[in-house]
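Need a sequence for this fold. Nothing fancy.
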């Protein structure tokens, strides 16, 4: 018996289907934030150069360590009080026409930058919390402060005793306020609950 040649008669296509549905990924809504406004007074008068920081409020993503400047100009440290986050590197340029020698020998960060001339700069990294009082070995009238805080939200008061901290997560926190020659003041505060008023007796 003669065999018939086999020829392809077509292509079979399998279509697979799944009746299951993927559950949507849970995405947390961003936390509500608020602009913290405050004022610091002492003896009924506004207090400038007060460092205020908040404990219990953190950013979602912590920024990289910053580099900021404490200038030396007209035989003075500018600004007189500088607040920084722990880990910040502070550049200290000499913009006077004389030599300077910046050092700090008590509390905070201890260092001595040695003599350096006009137009040059040296730097210090403030790697732990504390208050560093700055002096110049050549000009005894020069004095300034670097206040390093372990906080994401902090500010220094202006001439009217006022300060602002934007984009702070809402909720209960603890505030701290430092002023040269005074004990640190601490108290509760609710972000989003109004103006933060701090009084020194």
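Here you go.
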């Amino acid at each position: 018996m003669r065999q018939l040649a086999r020829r392809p008669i077509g292509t079979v296509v399998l279509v697979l289907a799944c009746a299951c549905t993927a559950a949507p990924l849970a995405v947390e809504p961003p936390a509500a934030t608020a602009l913290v406004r405050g004022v610091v007074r002492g003896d009924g008068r506004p207090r400038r150069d007060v460092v205020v920081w908040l404990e219990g409020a953190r950013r979602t993503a912590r920024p990289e360590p910053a580099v900021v400047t404490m200038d030396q100009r007209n035989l003075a440290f500018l600004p007189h009080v500088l607040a920084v986050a722990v880990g910040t590197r502070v550049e200290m340029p000499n913009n006077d026409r004389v030599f300077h020698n910046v050092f700090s020998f008590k509390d905070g960060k201890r260092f001595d930058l040695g003599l350096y001339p006009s137009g040059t700069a040296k730097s210090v990294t403030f790697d732990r919390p504390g208050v560093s009082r700055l002096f110049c070995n050549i000009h005894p009238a020069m004095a300034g402060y670097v206040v390093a805080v372990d906080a994401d939200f902090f500010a220094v008061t202006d001439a009217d005793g006022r300060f602002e901290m934007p984009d702070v997560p809402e909720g209960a926190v603890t505030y701290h306020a430092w002023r040269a020659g005074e004990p640190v003041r601490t108290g509760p505060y609710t972000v989003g609950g109004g103006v933060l008023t701090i009084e020194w007796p």
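For context: The chain has a mean pLDDT of 88.
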